[in-house]
Design a protein that fits this description.
heterodimer, A: four-stranded antiparallel β-sheet, 15 helices, 42% helix, B: 265 residues, alpha/beta, TIM Barrel, 12 helices
């Protein structure tokens, strides 16, 4: 079999990906592409990245056998890759460390980022503080209201948080606004995109920085279980944690890769954030071609998910490709199913998972029931749920 | 010869420069667009750039974003925009129309179907902001097969080798973005723009339009001194935003007249 070697030189994953931006951004992306190619395999750069991941982020993150939960569910053994134990509480920081190191080498004193739930914004503000970079985070004004603790966290870390009032006032609009900032301040600014979307080289670069999750998992599974899992399950919004754990497994035979999208109130209601599962049309947004939730006029439609981090109308182009090539499977779970899994993990394992990750957990429960106790599922527990306690309290009718 | 090429040739003969106002279709109201367009032509516009509303106009500043939002409030889509062009053509068969917008509405319709319908409606050129030439060669061919001009942007950061690549694909005219940033960001540095336009002119015989920073008569006069066309977008849309629905036609025409005078001066 040919080893997997996506994307091509212009960032295409089959018909997906590419560079779909206004001419004003082309040179900046070219500069980034050239610099990333230069450092991608540079031993000194990689050593510094590995050093920061170990000493600042706290890697490797452990893999934990959720025994009690597996027994309760009845079926396969479920293991959790504990990205929730990273500094700042989620996988997002792996990527921001990598991109900030690149920004420093490119001599850019200012970094910008978009954020939905605020996790990527916090991870960017964190690394900017550590490296002495000016930091501006764009966040939809709706999300600013919903995620007040993370807004305050970013401010504590010295970042400027700019509420975005245009469009639907959520993640996609924050991304638009960050792009506008970048094109205006291209000389001194590095745009740290938080997910495996955007124009080339972002989907590839973010995947590469997140691939540490899967690389560690392969070693740890061998040590702990003596073999690789039968299935790897991860939630997919833009898809960075999923790409991070999937990528090193793409060429490993007999490992099912399963991405879990947010079905919101249910795919059939139209109120969801599941472009792959709902068979959305292919289109162009935020610099790449991918599956997109859109109306018949090609306008991007509003999405719904209980989890702000999955509330995005598109999906990274590599996921679109993995779906079409059948290497990965994509499914969706509803808000309610994710909430149930959230509570289960809290009560049975003493771990408060992020609502995003709870989608992966909910599907793992379903899948485990269909499997034998000798079989193994690895779930990427992409973040911790402390940020979500207000949301969960609200749903439960509790005012904190 | 396309309507755009013909118009530029005629203007060159008269030693005049083209004035290209931009408006977003459906702003402030779908019923006003065609009327505004006729008013612009009467007041001295040579070409009209008609924006196709999009939910995520990444390359546009706040003024044109708001225009898109106003149009989308009436659910103005690409089909409606083509209907407006068709309606405009019943009274004006001379003024070229360039659609400016983003790739997704066109892909949602299908590029071939779009090319067919746009030609039927009377569109002359298409500027797709997020279609760099490397990603849209099929679409470019589809437009050219229908005698429509693919119009491309050139920016202050576009390297000479890329300028060559782009002007090879482009026809009708090329559009030089006079500043780094989004539409309507600030006033341009006229001298710097003049220098860049001279460099581009050495690489192509296509007419060169300049826009993204023409906010007043003085800038329009200066740009007309070296470019073949002056594109006025955000300033025109601002006029629409500040007008009532009743006087929007008169006000945009008035602004166009003053720009015409500045360009001819």
């Amino acid at each position: 079999m040919q080893p997997y070697d996506m994307p091509d030189a212009r960032g295409h994953f089959g018909p997906f990906g590419g560079i779909f931006v206004a001419e004003t951004l082309v040179e900046a992306l070219e500069e980034l592409r050239v610099m990333y190619e230069k450092y991608r395999f540079d031993p000194e750069f990689l050593a510094e990245f590995a050093h920061d991941l170990k000493h600042f982020v706290g890697r490797p993150s452990p893999i934990y056998h959720a025994k009690r939960w597996s027994e309760r569910v009845g079926g396969a053994q479920i293991y959790l890759k504990r990205e929730d134990l990273n500094h700042t509480g989620a996988h997002k920081v792996n990527n921001t460390v990598g991109q900030a190191l690149l920004a420093k080498r490119m001599g850019k004193p200012r970094v910008i980022a978009e954020t939905g739930a605020g996790q990527h914004g916090v991870a960017t503000a964190t690394i900017a503080a550590r490296m002495g970079l000016e930091c501006v985070v764009y966040m939809g004004s709706e999300d600013v209201k919903r995620q007040a603790p993370n807004v305050f966290r970013m401010k504590l870390l010295g970042a400027t948080v700019v509420p975005v009032e245009s469009g639907s006032k959520t993640l996609k609009d924050a991304l638009n606004e960050a792009m506008r900032d970048w094109v205006t301040n291209i000389e001194n600014t590095f745009y740290i995109i938080g997910t495996v979307a955007g124009p080339h080289p972002y989907p590839m670069m973010v995947r590469d920085f997140q691939a540490v999750i899967g690389v560690e998992s392969k070693i740890q599974m061998q040590e702990i279980v003596g073999r690789q899992p039968d299935a790897v399950v991860a939630c997919v919004g833009g898809g960075s944690n999923a790409m991070g754990i999937f990528y090193p497994y793409i060429d490993v035979p007999n490992v099912r890769l399963i991405g879990v999208e947010a079905a919101g109130h249910g795919i059939e209601t139209g109120k969801h954030a599941a472009p792959l599962t709902s068979n959305s049309a292919i289109g162009v947004l935020h610099g790449n071609r991918t599956y997109l939730m859109q109306d018949e006029d090609g306008q991007i439609i509003e999405t719904h998910s209980i989890s702000a981090g999955l509330d995005y109308p598109g999906v990274g182009p590599e996921h679109a490709w993995l779906k079409d090539s059948s290497r990965a499977e994509y499914v969706a779970v509803t808000d309610d199913e994710a909430m149930q899994a959230f509570h289960n993990l809290c009560r049975v394992e003493g771990i408060i998972p992020a609502l995003e990750s709870s989608h992966a957990l909910a599907y793992a429960e379903k899948l485990a029931k269909t499997m034998k106790p000798s079989e193994v599922i690895l779930v990427n527990l992409s973040g911790r749920g402390d940020k979500d306690i207000n949301t969960v309290a609200n749903i439960s009718g509790i005012n904190l | 010869m396309s309507r755009l090429t013909h118009t530029f040739a005629q203007l060159a003969q008269q030693q005049k420069k083209a004035l290209i106002p931009y408006i977003t279709a459906g702003d402030p109201h779908p019923d006003k667009t065609v009327e505004i367009m006729h008013g612009l032509v009467e007041a001295g516009a040579d070409v009209i750039e008609l924006g196709v509303p999009f939910s995520d106009p990444m390359a546009d500043g706040p003024v044109i974003q708001r225009a898109s939002e106003r149009a989308l409030a009436f659910k103005v889509g690409l089909r409606d925009v083509l209907n407006m062009v068709q309606q405009f053509r019943t009274q004006d068969n001379k003024t070229p129309i360039v659609l400016m917008g983003y790739a997704n509405p066109i892909e949602a319709m299908g590029t071939q179907k779009f090319a067919d319908l746009a030609k039927q409606a009377g569109v002359d050129g298409v500027l797709t902001v997020d279609y760099p030439p490397e990603e849209c060669s099929d679409f470019t061919q589809q437009l050219k097969a229908h005698d429509m001009d693919p119009v491309f942007l050139l920016s202050p950061t576009t390297e000479a080798s890329r300028v060559k690549l782009i002007v090879e694909q482009a026809s009708g005219f090329v559009y030089y973005v006079s500043l780094k940033g989004v539409t309507g960001a600030k006033n341009m540095d006229v001298q710097e723009v003049q220098q860049r336009v001279a460099e581009i002119r050495a690489m192509t015989g296509l007419p060169i339009g300049v826009g993204f920073g023409v906010r007043d008569a003085a800038t329009a006069t200066a740009v007309a001194g070296f470019a073949d066309a002056v594109v006025v977008g955000s300033r025109m849309v601002q006029e629409i935003e500040q007008s009532s629905v009743d006087n929007v036609v008169a006000n945009t025409a008035q602004l166009t007249r003053s720009l015409r005078q500045a360009i001819d001066a």
